[in-house]
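Good morning C.,

I know you're traveling, so I'll keep this short. The sequence:
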Amino acid sequence: MKVQFAKSVEAYVELVEKKLLKKEACNNLILGILERLKQNNEGAYYLGWVEKDKELLFPFMQTAPNNWVLPDLEQFVGEEVIRVAVKQIWDQGMEVPGVIGPEQYATIFAKEWEDITGNQPVVHMQEWIYQLDAVNQVQQDGELVIAQEKDLSLLIRWLQQFGEEAGEKITEKQAEAIARRNINQHSAFLWQVGKHYVSMANRSRTTKNGATINAVFTPDQHKEKGYATSLVAALSQQLLDSGYPFCSLYTDTSNPISNHVYQKIGYYKVGSAIVYSF
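The tokens, ready to paste straight into the viewer:
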């Protein structure tokens, strides 16, 4: 077996896309990142794969300083394939702040990294991956609006609160950068009831056939009123109407409320992922 790293994003996409598209919704993270890198490949990134006899076995990647991302494949490739990849990452002196992927792969990765470095992995989050092909009818009291520059301070505040709820600290500087980017890309959406904004969501990365929704947040004073349900249903429908055959999103497996909300809208489980931090 041999580990290689691509220098060209386009060449890497050509190599791995067909294999990843076989479980497109489950691979929305790695496919979405690659789609983004095709548009803007500034910054450090590592596009790796394991091959045997010139046959692609296992792609993996990182946009530094973020977690390594592992794919969900139709057939299990075997523990040794993952170990070979991890050893090459170590040999090349690459940073490993964490890893995200299907549990069967991410756990092997984390154990091998611990064996090599002595750094003990910690489970940061376990997630369900959902897909939606059609939106169920849900009551929608309010209106979906796209966030504008005037909404910047609200998005910054809500993104920080979203991070606190998700266990991901987002500084004000980071929140501002995210909010500005989302506003500029016309991907940030708000749910408006009367004259007030009550919930937010973001159309995140896209793949060949799908769009991912993330950063769904409702402040405490507006919770338990169905606003997030209405928002995600309306945004999902808008994405389907714009030509995407499906939508996808991640949820925390330990949050029964959000999982119930998304299933009510029409989302169904297609996979899972685990996040390890070192």
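Safe travels,
E.
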